[in-house]
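Q: Hi! First time doing this. I have a protein sequence and I read that you can turn it into a structure. Is that right? Here it is:
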Amino acid sequence: MVHMDCTGRLYGAIYWAVVIVAESGQHHLYRAAKSSRGQTMKRAGVGCRKPGCPGIVRAGVCSVCGPRRGVFDRGYDQQRGSSAERGYDGRWQRLRGMYLRQHPLCVGCAGHGRTVVATEVHHKIPKREGGTDHFDNLLALCKPCHSRITVSGG
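A: Yes, that's right. Below is the predicted 3D structure, encoded as structure tokens:
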């Protein structure tokens, strides 16, 4: 999806502000100049990754959201423990690789008629609720499908 807005003339060239909405939902702001020599586009910046922040940055989060984010992340990470403590050690990495080789396509996308390579493995019953690493309790998903299921409490 591309939105284009002509913002005026400067030194005989027509300038546009172009916002491109990627599939990831991230907004990219470009400034384009069209002159008699052709069209060039220069990357101006992207929106801050913190939801609801209007800041435009080159990448990541703005200077206001950055310090706040670090404090929140450190506290959250200390509470939940390391990946090995949560059961995602070397054994899990091998099992995950084996499962993805046997189930290479995302089951979430397949349900919508799309063919997408699975990159993540989801536990139907989460390990924190007593779920196991048995293949019957696993689903092969792409990153967007896995994020959607995880956010919805699955």
